[in-house]
Specification:
21% strand, globular, nine-stranded mixed β-sheet, single chain, 12 helices, alpha/beta
Length: 331
């Protein structure tokens, strides 16, 4: 095993998030399915952006948000993702480096603009995402930094990147590098739409290449085409070392071998925006696993981070997660 310089190295869609408030009538007018995520082209991205209310622009992307959370916990984090050498791409690189994460992936030399996700948030905190992937899904195996992956305790792969063939090949390459260095590989299922499109391929990749799986309940049920949570969890458990499944207000379930931990959701005064909840849960959980903490503490760190992010706008923590965790006696 090479020297460990990072707790976590993530591979994901480098996306700039644009968040704005809306009502159900706006979603209906724009043909958007509340709470869903759809992929759009650049033309639609421009027209929807023009129709949206004024909002907040921030570097995001699921795995990028997780890296921001890990850094907020005091973790050593690295990121691999693709942006264009345009204004948004430069902003994204600056934002990642400003939080202390290593992000050195080469700019996309010739191709589409930096990706962005247009997120409309209703009063109940539900977010409806319309995503132009742009440069983000141009990631290929050549972008996998062998030294970076080999020096990271856990490699974290974002399920959204399972769509492009080159990115799937990059996943395989990254997992091979990680395992050759004696590291663990984690994947998040990201979205039921991803699971529905790539169910068989995802199950095969999990069985052959993954040690840790993160999912929400709907994604888990979709993966195994089950309607019963316990039945689906029973099918996942033998495939991986560790699995964590979030269940909204029911909290989460984390399993490893014969061990099972039920983690309650941390109380939140008012849910403002659920964007990034799963990403921040992953940050806490994975940092705990990287540092060898007890399974219950890992789950609680995830739950704490998710609670922080849903209490405000935006997908990344606004206060130090390390300070919050220390106040709770978790680290």
């Amino acid at each position: 095993m090479t020297d460990t310089r990072f707790d976590l190295c993530a591979v994901g869609n480098a996306i700039v998030d644009v968040l704005a408030p809306c009502d159900d009538a706006f979603l209906a007018r724009e043909g958007l399915v509340k709470g869903g995520m759809m992929l759009i082209d650049e033309t639609r991205a421009v027209s929807l952006y023009d129709a949206m209310a004024a909002g907040l622009e921030a570097s995001g992307g699921s795995a990028g948000n997780t890296i921001a959370g890990a850094a907020s916990f005091g973790g050593r984090a690295a990121y691999i993702g693709k942006v264009a050498e345009d204004t948004l791409g430069q902003v994204y690189r600056h934002d990642m480096q400003a939080i202390g994460a290593v992000f050195d992936t080469a700019y996309l030399a010739d191709g589409p603009a930096t990706g962005r996700s247009l997120i409309n948030v209703t009063d109940d905190g539900q977010r409806t995402m319309s995503t132009f992937l742009g440069a983000a899904n141009q990631l290929d195996p050549g972008d996998i930094d062998v030294e970076l992956v080999g020096a990271s305790e856990i490699l974290y792969l974002e399920g959204y990147l399972f769509d492009p063939a080159d990115a799937r090949a990059a996943f395989v390459r990254a997992a091979e590098v990680a395992h050759a260095a004696g590291r663990r590989v984690a994947v998040t299922l990201s979205d039921t739409f991803v699971v529905d499109r790539w169910r068989e391929e995802l199950r095969s990749f999990i069985e052959t290449s993954c040690d840790i799986v993160l999912a929400n309940e709907a994604e888990l049920l979709s993966l195994f085409e089950e309607t019963d949570f316990e039945a689906a969890l029973a099918k996942l458990r033998p495939l991986v070392e560790t699995a964590a499944v979030t269940r909204s207000e029911k909290g989460s379930v984390v399993v490893r071998g014969d061990e099972r931990v039920e983690v309650a959701a941390y109380p939140v005064g008012k849910v403002i925006d659920t964007t990034g909840a799963g990403d921040q849960y992953a940050a806490g959980l994975l940092l705990g696993l990287a540092r060898g903490l007890p399974l219950e503490i890992c789950g609680k760190l995830g739950s704490l981070a998710a609670a922080e992010v849903i209490a405000h706008w935006g997908p990344r923590p606004l206060v130090s997660l390390k300070d919050l965790a220390q106040a709770e006696g978790l680290i």
